[in-house]
Amino acid sequence: RELDQALKTSLSEDSIKEGLQGFIEKAVRIFRVNMGHIRLEKNVFVNNRSETLLELVAGTGEYYKNAIRERSDINSKDNSPTAEVFATGETIIINDAKNNASHRAMCERQSKDCPATSEVLAKLGAYANTPLKNQKGETIGTINLVSDETWFFTSMHENALQALGERAAASADEEGPRFGHRRGSGRGRAIHERERRTTVAGSRGRT
Fold first, then answer.
1. How far apart (Å, rounded) are the C-alpha atoms in residues 52 and 68?
2. What burial class does residue 165 get, using C-beta atoms within 10 Å of its C-beta: 0-12 exposed, 13-18 middle, 19+ buried?
3. What are the residues whose beta carbons fall under 8 Å from the beta carbon of 24, sequence distance 6 or more?
4. Residue from 36, 8, 7, 53 nearest 147 by CA
5. Pairing mode of beta strands 126-133, 92-94
6. What is the pTM of this model?
7. 179: which strand partners?
């Protein structure tokens, strides 16, 4: 109910960014996490070629404050969970970030060009990244929620994240064309099985 109210409020804002900013702030409080951010698909031309970027359009917390300066746009083919979620259209949950090899490698890669962002990433406990999909089921962006606690996200959270993505996407999909964000193209639905089995199974053991 609270998310539905947040969605109604976001749709009444003058811009998609204002609407999604209010929505992510509300989502962070409802899920009782420490940070959160939203990226939307954006097409640009570089050297006469079209590229798809994921633009950081809303967020709250330490990661967002640093990433908006160092990592506001990322390539949709970036080697990161966000880009993977955008490509596969499936939720990824990493419940023990500090002991996750992929997460540590990402921190190392970003340490040179994005030192402040990398420092925040290195301290994370757990995070969940879920796709934003339009009414046709096409991925148009991603939403990321972050907790300081390890093993924070459970299978119950996973179901709630799907609903969260659908609600946030409703706002972006409704207003996207007016603000220059196009609806995403259809993508494969392969899932990060290894990570999901590990984290969700571990989360169930925690509950």
1. 18
2. buried
3. 36, 37, 38, 58, 59, 60, 143, 168
4. 36
5. antiparallel
6. 0.78
7. none
Element counts in the chain: helices (H) and strands (E): 8, 6
Rounded CA-CA distance 136/206 in Å is 36
Check residues 196 and 144 and name the one with the higher pLDDT.
144
Beta-carbon contacts of 70 under 8 Å, excluding residues fewer than 6 positions away, are 113, 114, 115, 116, 117
How far apart (Å, rounded) are the C-alpha atoms in residues 140 and 134?
Answer: 7
The CA distance from 106 to 104, in Å, is 5
Taking only the tens place, the pLDDT of each residue in 83-133 is 999 999 999 999 999 999 989 999 999 998 999 999 999 999 999 999 998
Handedness of CA 45, 50, 53, 58 (dihedral sign): positive
pLDDT band of 184, cuts 50, 70, 90 = very low
